[in-house]
Protein: Aspartyl/asparaginyl beta-hydroxylase domain-containing protein
Organism: Streptomyces sp. SID12501
Amino acid sequence: MTPEIENAFAAIRAEFGAESITRVERMLEPGGGGDRHPLQKAAKWIMPGLSTTPWHDPYAYDEIAPVVHALEAAHQAIKEELNVAWAARREAFSDYEHYLTRQENWQALYLFREGGLVAESATTVPTAYQLLRDVAVDTEKICPLLECHFSTLLAGAAIDPHCDLWNFSINLHLAVDIPDGCSITVAGETRSWDEGRCLLFDYSFEHEARNEGTRPRTCLLIDLWHPETTIPERRALVALIAEIRRLMGDD
């Protein structure tokens, strides 16, 4: 570890206790994270001690349930604003740039990125922007290392099987506009989106998606902290990943 990471970790241990970030430190050891599920092997970091369940009940966690209920209650307004933006402000969307690839047939409208809200989206999709700020950003439930965006998969497009970087955040989908013929597979189990409802899954497991319909499929994706992580662990993870990105020249 660099001196910057060591100093950050020491400060967290001093505030929260010597054992407060043990799981984060174990993750950084050779072979850290312990045994992995075969469909997690492509993830870069696996923090030990978190549930090894690919699919999660979005209503089961006290931390996440208020986000789910707020998004689902506002679904119709979110969908209407999204459709207006897609028709009249297409320039607000861009090719989605995953850390592994970039796809022209996978479009994104960002609400939160690079550690902060995307101010331009406040006028483009105001309901989603305000809700995100109120229930996920101001409450620090969003993982600031990642993002929130409308994910629009064009007709006929597919997202190839892949693992995301780690297991200490979790991916929430609000199904905004879902034509027939759309599905998502996580760790070998395929599900469909139910428009107006949320799905929650651990994207350190291999997953893929497809739109075999005749019009675009849009979900609102939010990267939340895994609800089984603690406040000191979250602080340590932000310090760790921010320093790694700095060293790699990503900032």
